[in-house]
Amino acid sequence: MSNFLFTDEHEDFRASVRSFSQSQLAPGYMARATSSDFFWDTYRELGRHGLLGLGVSEENGGQGADLITVGIACEETAAADYNAAFTVFNASVAGGMLEKNLQPGLREKWLPGVISGELLTGLALTEPESGSDAQAMHMRAAKVEGGWLLNGEKTSSSLAAHAHGLVVFAKTSPDGGTRSVTAFFVPLDTPGISRHALNDIGFKPIGRAAVAFEDVFVPDENVMGEIGRGFQMVMGEFDYTRSLLGLICYGSAQAAIDMTVAYAKQRTAFGQPIGRFQGVSFPLAEHATYLEGVKWLSYHALALRMAGRPHTKEAAMIKWWGPQTAVRAIHDCIVLHGHVAYSEDLPLQQMLRDVSGLEIGDGTPQIQKMIVAREMFGREYLPYGAPKATA
Protein backbone atom coordinates (compact mmCIF):
# COMPACT_ATOMS: atom_id res chain seq x y z
CA MET A 1 0.00 0.00 0.00
CA SER A 2 1.24 3.50 -0.80
CA ASN A 3 2.94 5.28 2.07
CA PHE A 4 0.97 8.51 2.03
CA LEU A 5 -1.58 10.37 4.09
CA PHE A 6 -3.94 13.07 2.93
CA THR A 7 -2.41 16.47 3.59
CA ASP A 8 -4.23 19.31 5.33
CA GLU A 9 -4.76 20.83 1.88
CA HIS A 10 -6.37 17.60 0.69
CA GLU A 11 -8.71 17.52 3.68
CA ASP A 12 -9.67 21.18 3.25
CA PHE A 13 -10.39 20.52 -0.41
CA ARG A 14 -12.48 17.47 0.48
CA ALA A 15 -14.56 19.49 2.94
CA SER A 16 -15.13 22.20 0.36
CA VAL A 17 -16.16 19.79 -2.41
CA ARG A 18 -18.39 17.82 -0.03
CA SER A 19 -20.19 20.97 1.10
CA PHE A 20 -20.74 22.11 -2.47
CA SER A 21 -21.79 18.66 -3.69
CA GLN A 22 -24.27 17.95 -0.92
CA SER A 23 -25.86 21.40 -1.09
CA GLN A 24 -25.78 22.05 -4.84
CA LEU A 25 -25.63 18.65 -6.57
CA ALA A 26 -27.47 16.11 -4.41
CA PRO A 27 -30.90 17.84 -4.36
CA GLY A 28 -31.19 17.83 -8.16
CA TYR A 29 -29.61 14.46 -8.89
CA MET A 30 -32.81 12.58 -9.72
CA ALA A 31 -34.23 15.29 -11.95
CA ARG A 32 -31.02 15.49 -13.95
CA ALA A 33 -30.40 11.74 -14.03
CA THR A 34 -33.76 10.92 -15.61
CA SER A 35 -33.42 13.47 -18.41
CA SER A 36 -31.53 13.07 -21.67
CA ASP A 37 -30.75 16.79 -21.66
CA PHE A 38 -27.27 17.81 -20.60
CA PHE A 39 -27.12 19.82 -17.37
CA TRP A 40 -25.31 22.87 -18.75
CA ASP A 41 -26.10 25.17 -15.80
CA THR A 42 -24.77 22.63 -13.30
CA TYR A 43 -21.76 21.95 -15.51
CA ARG A 44 -20.84 25.64 -15.62
CA GLU A 45 -21.26 25.75 -11.85
CA LEU A 46 -18.71 22.93 -11.59
CA GLY A 47 -16.42 25.08 -13.71
CA ARG A 48 -16.92 28.12 -11.47
CA HIS A 49 -15.91 25.99 -8.49
CA GLY A 50 -12.69 24.96 -10.23
CA LEU A 51 -13.66 21.31 -10.60
CA LEU A 52 -13.24 21.12 -14.39
CA GLY A 53 -9.66 22.33 -14.58
CA LEU A 54 -8.04 20.12 -11.98
CA GLY A 55 -6.03 18.21 -14.59
CA VAL A 56 -4.73 21.34 -16.35
CA SER A 57 -1.67 23.30 -15.24
CA GLU A 58 -2.00 26.76 -13.68
CA GLU A 59 0.03 28.09 -16.60
CA ASN A 60 -2.83 27.17 -18.94
CA GLY A 61 -5.64 28.33 -16.66
CA GLY A 62 -6.29 25.20 -14.61
CA GLN A 63 -5.71 24.29 -10.98
CA GLY A 64 -2.62 22.15 -11.52
CA ALA A 65 -3.91 19.73 -8.91
CA ASP A 66 -2.15 16.52 -7.97
CA LEU A 67 -3.82 13.21 -8.77
CA ILE A 68 -4.97 12.62 -5.19
CA THR A 69 -6.90 15.90 -5.36
CA VAL A 70 -8.55 14.83 -8.61
CA GLY A 71 -9.51 11.54 -6.96
CA ILE A 72 -11.06 13.36 -4.00
CA ALA A 73 -13.13 15.49 -6.39
CA CYS A 74 -14.42 12.38 -8.17
CA GLU A 75 -15.22 10.61 -4.90
CA GLU A 76 -17.07 13.48 -3.25
CA THR A 77 -19.09 14.58 -6.28
CA ALA A 78 -20.09 10.95 -6.94
CA ALA A 79 -21.52 10.72 -3.43
CA ALA A 80 -24.01 13.41 -4.48
CA ASP A 81 -24.47 12.99 -8.24
CA TYR A 82 -22.90 10.20 -10.26
CA ASN A 83 -23.34 11.97 -13.60
CA ALA A 84 -21.85 15.24 -12.39
CA ALA A 85 -18.90 13.24 -11.06
CA PHE A 86 -18.41 11.70 -14.48
CA THR A 87 -18.09 15.15 -16.03
CA VAL A 88 -15.51 16.14 -13.40
CA PHE A 89 -13.62 12.96 -14.26
CA ASN A 90 -13.92 13.58 -18.00
CA ALA A 91 -12.81 17.20 -17.81
CA SER A 92 -9.78 16.31 -15.69
CA VAL A 93 -8.67 13.57 -18.08
CA ALA A 94 -9.62 15.32 -21.33
CA GLY A 95 -8.16 18.63 -20.19
CA GLY A 96 -4.82 16.99 -19.49
CA MET A 97 -4.83 15.19 -22.84
CA LEU A 98 -5.65 18.38 -24.74
CA GLU A 99 -3.02 20.37 -22.87
CA LYS A 100 -0.31 17.81 -23.60
CA ASN A 101 -1.19 16.95 -27.19
CA LEU A 102 -2.91 19.87 -28.93
CA GLN A 103 -1.00 22.38 -31.02
CA PRO A 104 -0.64 25.74 -29.19
CA GLY A 105 -3.25 27.52 -31.30
CA LEU A 106 -5.91 24.89 -30.73
CA ARG A 107 -4.98 24.59 -27.08
CA GLU A 108 -5.53 28.31 -26.55
CA LYS A 109 -8.85 28.11 -28.39
CA TRP A 110 -10.32 25.10 -26.59
CA LEU A 111 -8.83 24.76 -23.11
CA PRO A 112 -10.39 27.86 -21.50
CA GLY A 113 -13.88 26.69 -22.50
CA VAL A 114 -13.25 23.17 -21.24
CA ILE A 115 -12.10 24.55 -17.88
CA SER A 116 -15.02 26.99 -17.53
CA GLY A 117 -17.71 24.51 -18.56
CA GLU A 118 -18.63 26.33 -21.75
CA LEU A 119 -17.19 23.61 -23.99
CA LEU A 120 -17.56 19.85 -23.73
CA THR A 121 -15.19 17.30 -25.23
CA GLY A 122 -15.08 13.52 -25.32
CA LEU A 123 -13.21 10.50 -26.60
CA ALA A 124 -14.15 8.34 -29.60
CA LEU A 125 -12.36 4.98 -29.65
CA THR A 126 -15.00 2.22 -29.68
CA GLU A 127 -16.57 1.12 -32.98
CA PRO A 128 -19.54 -1.13 -33.82
CA GLU A 129 -17.18 -4.06 -34.49
CA SER A 130 -14.23 -2.94 -32.38
CA GLY A 131 -14.69 -2.73 -28.63
CA SER A 132 -12.33 -4.68 -26.41
CA ASP A 133 -10.24 -5.48 -29.50
CA ALA A 134 -9.39 -1.83 -30.10
CA GLN A 135 -6.73 -2.66 -32.67
CA ALA A 136 -9.44 -4.03 -34.98
CA MET A 137 -10.81 -0.57 -35.69
CA HIS A 138 -12.08 0.20 -39.19
CA MET A 139 -12.02 4.01 -38.96
CA ARG A 140 -9.64 5.38 -41.59
CA ALA A 141 -7.83 8.68 -42.03
CA ALA A 142 -6.41 9.27 -45.52
CA LYS A 143 -3.76 11.93 -46.09
CA VAL A 144 -4.79 14.75 -48.42
CA GLU A 145 -3.36 18.18 -49.08
CA GLY A 146 -3.34 20.19 -45.87
CA GLY A 147 -4.84 17.51 -43.70
CA TRP A 148 -6.75 14.24 -43.50
CA LEU A 149 -10.09 12.79 -44.58
CA LEU A 150 -11.81 10.70 -41.91
CA ASN A 151 -14.28 7.95 -42.79
CA GLY A 152 -15.96 5.47 -40.49
CA GLU A 153 -18.14 5.20 -37.42
CA LYS A 154 -17.57 5.39 -33.69
CA THR A 155 -20.07 4.27 -31.09
CA SER A 156 -20.59 4.24 -27.32
CA SER A 157 -18.81 7.58 -27.05
CA SER A 158 -19.69 9.22 -23.73
CA LEU A 159 -20.84 12.86 -24.02
CA ALA A 160 -20.75 12.70 -27.83
CA ALA A 161 -24.45 13.63 -28.07
CA HIS A 162 -23.69 17.01 -26.48
CA ALA A 163 -19.97 17.58 -27.07
CA HIS A 164 -18.37 20.34 -29.11
CA GLY A 165 -15.29 18.27 -29.98
CA LEU A 166 -13.99 14.71 -29.86
CA VAL A 167 -10.59 13.07 -29.71
CA VAL A 168 -11.03 10.57 -32.55
CA PHE A 169 -8.77 7.58 -33.17
CA ALA A 170 -8.33 6.36 -36.76
CA LYS A 171 -5.97 4.15 -38.72
CA THR A 172 -3.55 6.16 -40.84
CA SER A 173 -1.81 3.14 -42.35
CA PRO A 174 -3.39 -0.24 -43.10
CA ASP A 175 -0.79 -2.68 -41.78
CA GLY A 176 1.02 -0.96 -38.94
CA GLY A 177 -0.64 -2.73 -36.02
CA THR A 178 -0.71 -0.55 -32.92
CA ARG A 179 1.52 1.97 -34.69
CA SER A 180 -1.08 2.57 -37.40
CA VAL A 181 -3.48 4.53 -35.18
CA THR A 182 -3.41 8.32 -34.94
CA ALA A 183 -5.43 10.64 -32.69
CA PHE A 184 -7.23 13.65 -34.17
CA PHE A 185 -9.08 16.47 -32.45
CA VAL A 186 -12.30 16.93 -34.40
CA PRO A 187 -14.77 19.80 -33.81
CA LEU A 188 -18.23 18.29 -34.14
CA ASP A 189 -19.58 21.11 -36.30
CA THR A 190 -17.26 19.94 -39.09
CA PRO A 191 -19.18 19.01 -42.30
CA GLY A 192 -19.73 15.28 -42.83
CA ILE A 193 -20.42 14.38 -39.18
CA SER A 194 -23.71 12.93 -37.96
CA ARG A 195 -24.63 11.82 -34.45
CA HIS A 196 -27.15 9.38 -33.01
CA ALA A 197 -27.81 9.38 -29.26
CA LEU A 198 -28.20 5.97 -27.60
CA ASN A 199 -31.18 5.28 -25.33
CA ASP A 200 -29.45 4.09 -22.17
CA ILE A 201 -31.03 2.70 -18.99
CA GLY A 202 -28.79 4.95 -16.90
CA PHE A 203 -26.16 7.58 -17.59
CA LYS A 204 -28.87 9.44 -19.56
CA PRO A 205 -27.68 13.06 -19.37
CA ILE A 206 -24.13 12.02 -20.31
CA GLY A 207 -25.36 11.40 -23.85
CA ARG A 208 -23.61 8.26 -25.05
CA ALA A 209 -23.78 8.32 -28.83
CA ALA A 210 -22.72 6.88 -32.16
CA VAL A 211 -20.90 9.28 -34.49
CA ALA A 212 -20.51 8.77 -38.24
CA PHE A 213 -17.77 10.43 -40.31
CA GLU A 214 -18.11 10.79 -44.08
CA ASP A 215 -15.18 12.49 -45.82
CA VAL A 216 -14.60 14.68 -42.77
CA PHE A 217 -11.66 17.00 -43.40
CA VAL A 218 -9.34 17.58 -40.45
CA PRO A 219 -6.37 19.98 -40.83
CA ASP A 220 -2.84 18.78 -40.10
CA GLU A 221 -2.74 20.96 -36.99
CA ASN A 222 -5.51 18.83 -35.47
CA VAL A 223 -3.29 15.76 -35.24
CA MET A 224 -2.71 15.05 -31.55
CA GLY A 225 0.77 13.92 -30.64
CA GLU A 226 2.68 11.93 -33.23
CA ILE A 227 1.28 10.24 -36.30
CA GLY A 228 0.92 6.52 -35.59
CA ARG A 229 1.15 6.96 -31.81
CA GLY A 230 -2.52 7.42 -30.98
CA PHE A 231 -2.98 3.93 -29.58
CA GLN A 232 -0.08 4.41 -27.19
CA MET A 233 -1.52 7.78 -26.16
CA VAL A 234 -4.88 6.40 -25.10
CA MET A 235 -3.48 3.22 -23.53
CA GLY A 236 -1.27 5.40 -21.36
CA GLU A 237 -4.35 7.20 -20.03
CA PHE A 238 -6.37 4.09 -19.18
CA ASP A 239 -4.37 3.37 -16.02
CA TYR A 240 -5.30 6.87 -14.84
CA THR A 241 -8.96 6.77 -15.84
CA ARG A 242 -9.55 3.36 -14.30
CA SER A 243 -8.12 4.53 -10.99
CA LEU A 244 -10.46 7.54 -10.94
CA LEU A 245 -13.49 5.48 -11.93
CA GLY A 246 -12.91 3.30 -8.88
CA LEU A 247 -13.43 6.37 -6.71
CA ILE A 248 -16.62 7.30 -8.55
CA CYS A 249 -17.89 3.79 -7.82
CA TYR A 250 -16.85 4.08 -4.19
CA GLY A 251 -18.43 7.51 -3.69
CA SER A 252 -21.77 6.50 -5.16
CA ALA A 253 -22.00 3.15 -3.37
CA GLN A 254 -20.85 4.57 -0.03
CA ALA A 255 -23.64 7.14 -0.27
CA ALA A 256 -26.09 4.24 -0.71
CA ILE A 257 -24.60 2.49 2.34
CA ASP A 258 -24.89 5.66 4.45
CA MET A 259 -28.50 6.11 3.34
CA THR A 260 -29.31 2.52 4.27
CA VAL A 261 -27.63 2.69 7.67
CA ALA A 262 -29.68 5.79 8.48
CA TYR A 263 -32.85 4.01 7.35
CA ALA A 264 -32.05 0.87 9.37
CA LYS A 265 -31.65 2.98 12.51
CA GLN A 266 -35.14 4.45 12.30
CA ARG A 267 -37.13 1.69 10.58
CA THR A 268 -38.64 -0.68 13.15
CA ALA A 269 -39.82 -4.27 12.85
CA PHE A 270 -40.80 -6.68 15.61
CA GLY A 271 -40.52 -3.85 18.10
CA GLN A 272 -36.97 -2.68 17.40
CA PRO A 273 -34.84 -0.92 14.75
CA ILE A 274 -34.00 -3.30 11.92
CA GLY A 275 -30.34 -2.29 12.25
CA ARG A 276 -30.20 -4.57 15.29
CA PHE A 277 -30.81 -7.61 13.10
CA GLN A 278 -27.68 -9.26 11.76
CA GLY A 279 -29.50 -9.98 8.51
CA VAL A 280 -29.43 -6.22 7.97
CA SER A 281 -26.21 -5.13 9.66
CA PHE A 282 -23.92 -7.92 8.42
CA PRO A 283 -24.45 -7.34 4.68
CA LEU A 284 -23.80 -3.64 5.20
CA ALA A 285 -20.66 -4.42 7.18
CA GLU A 286 -19.43 -6.67 4.38
CA HIS A 287 -20.12 -4.11 1.66
CA ALA A 288 -18.45 -1.36 3.70
CA THR A 289 -15.35 -3.56 3.98
CA TYR A 290 -15.16 -4.27 0.26
CA LEU A 291 -15.81 -0.64 -0.64
CA GLU A 292 -13.05 0.52 1.67
CA GLY A 293 -10.73 -1.80 -0.25
CA VAL A 294 -11.83 -0.26 -3.56
CA LYS A 295 -11.22 3.23 -2.19
CA TRP A 296 -7.71 2.60 -0.97
CA LEU A 297 -6.65 0.54 -3.96
CA SER A 298 -7.75 3.48 -6.13
CA TYR A 299 -5.74 6.01 -4.14
CA HIS A 300 -2.83 3.58 -4.06
CA ALA A 301 -2.82 3.43 -7.87
CA LEU A 302 -2.97 7.23 -8.11
CA ALA A 303 -0.06 7.53 -5.68
CA LEU A 304 1.96 5.05 -7.75
CA ARG A 305 1.25 7.11 -10.87
CA MET A 306 2.35 10.30 -9.11
CA ALA A 307 5.58 8.55 -8.15
CA GLY A 308 6.18 7.43 -11.73
CA ARG A 309 5.85 3.77 -10.79
CA PRO A 310 4.02 1.00 -12.70
CA HIS A 311 0.34 0.69 -11.80
CA THR A 312 -1.28 -1.09 -14.74
CA LYS A 313 -2.13 -4.15 -12.64
CA GLU A 314 -3.64 -2.08 -9.84
CA ALA A 315 -5.71 0.01 -12.26
CA ALA A 316 -7.08 -3.13 -13.94
CA MET A 317 -7.93 -4.62 -10.54
CA ILE A 318 -9.87 -1.47 -9.69
CA LYS A 319 -11.70 -1.44 -12.99
CA TRP A 320 -13.19 -4.93 -12.71
CA TRP A 321 -13.63 -5.02 -8.95
CA GLY A 322 -14.81 -1.47 -8.24
CA PRO A 323 -17.96 -1.41 -10.39
CA GLN A 324 -18.90 -4.97 -9.41
CA THR A 325 -18.51 -4.15 -5.71
CA ALA A 326 -20.51 -0.94 -6.04
CA VAL A 327 -23.35 -2.56 -8.00
CA ARG A 328 -23.67 -5.38 -5.45
CA ALA A 329 -23.67 -2.92 -2.57
CA ILE A 330 -26.33 -0.67 -4.08
CA HIS A 331 -28.46 -3.68 -5.00
CA ASP A 332 -28.43 -4.91 -1.41
CA CYS A 333 -29.26 -1.40 -0.19
CA ILE A 334 -32.39 -1.53 -2.36
CA VAL A 335 -33.36 -4.91 -0.90
CA LEU A 336 -32.74 -3.75 2.68
CA HIS A 337 -35.01 -0.75 2.15
CA GLY A 338 -37.78 -3.10 1.07
CA HIS A 339 -40.67 -1.97 -1.10
CA VAL A 340 -39.99 1.75 -0.60
CA ALA A 341 -36.79 1.47 -2.66
CA TYR A 342 -38.56 -0.16 -5.60
CA SER A 343 -39.80 3.20 -6.82
CA GLU A 344 -38.48 6.47 -8.10
CA ASP A 345 -39.14 8.12 -4.74
CA LEU A 346 -35.66 7.07 -3.62
CA PRO A 347 -32.51 7.51 -5.73
CA LEU A 348 -31.15 4.01 -5.12
CA GLN A 349 -32.59 2.46 -8.28
CA GLN A 350 -31.17 5.32 -10.34
CA MET A 351 -27.77 4.94 -8.68
CA LEU A 352 -27.79 1.24 -9.57
CA ARG A 353 -28.55 1.95 -13.24
CA ASP A 354 -25.95 4.70 -13.46
CA VAL A 355 -23.10 2.81 -11.79
CA SER A 356 -23.76 -0.44 -13.66
CA GLY A 357 -22.57 1.18 -16.89
CA LEU A 358 -19.03 1.26 -15.51
CA GLU A 359 -18.92 -2.53 -15.51
CA ILE A 360 -18.61 -2.22 -19.30
CA GLY A 361 -17.24 1.21 -20.16
CA ASP A 362 -13.48 1.85 -20.11
CA GLY A 363 -12.73 -1.87 -20.27
CA THR A 364 -14.81 -4.96 -19.52
CA PRO A 365 -14.17 -7.18 -16.47
CA GLN A 366 -12.85 -9.92 -18.75
CA ILE A 367 -10.24 -7.64 -20.31
CA GLN A 368 -9.21 -6.30 -16.89
CA LYS A 369 -8.70 -9.79 -15.48
CA MET A 370 -6.64 -10.64 -18.55
CA ILE A 371 -4.44 -7.61 -17.84
CA VAL A 372 -3.99 -8.64 -14.20
CA ALA A 373 -3.13 -12.19 -15.28
CA ARG A 374 -0.67 -10.84 -17.85
CA GLU A 375 1.11 -8.86 -15.14
CA MET A 376 1.22 -11.96 -12.93
CA PHE A 377 2.17 -14.66 -15.47
CA GLY A 378 3.82 -12.74 -18.28
CA ARG A 379 2.64 -11.82 -21.75
CA GLU A 380 3.54 -15.24 -23.15
CA TYR A 381 0.70 -16.77 -21.11
CA LEU A 382 -2.01 -14.69 -22.76
CA PRO A 383 -4.36 -16.61 -25.09
CA TYR A 384 -3.09 -14.66 -28.08
CA GLY A 385 0.50 -14.86 -26.89
CA ALA A 386 0.77 -18.64 -26.71
CA PRO A 387 3.57 -20.18 -28.77
CA LYS A 388 2.51 -21.84 -32.00
CA ALA A 389 2.40 -25.61 -31.97
CA THR A 390 5.16 -27.29 -33.92
CA ALA A 391 4.64 -30.26 -36.22
TrEMBL record:
Location of the Acyl-CoA dehydrogenase/oxidase C-terminal domain: 228-376
> Pfam families, per this entry?
Acyl-CoA_dh_1 (PF00441), Acyl-CoA_dh_M (PF02770), Acyl-CoA_dh_N (PF02771)
User: Which SUPFAM superfamilies does the entry mention?
Assistant: Acyl-CoA dehydrogenase C-terminal domain-like, Acyl-CoA dehydrogenase NM domain-like
Q: Name the InterPro entries on file.
A: Acyl-CoA_DH_CS, Acyl-CoA_Oxase/DH_mid-dom, Acyl-CoA_Oxase/DH_mid-dom_sf, AcylCo_DH-like_C, AcylCo_DH/oxidase_C, AcylCoA_DH/ox_N, AcylCoA_DH/ox_N_sf, AcylCoA_DH/oxidase_NM_dom_sf
TM ranges are none
Cofactor dependence is on: FAD
Question: What is the top-level taxon of the source organism?
Answer: Bacteria
Residues covered by the Acyl-CoA dehydrogenase/oxidase N-terminal domain: 7-118
Q: Which UniProt keywords apply?
A: FAD, Flavoprotein, Oxidoreductase
What name appears for this protein in its UniProt entry?
A: Cyclohexanecarboxyl-CoA dehydrogenase
Q: What's the source species for this entry?
A: Blastococcus mobilis
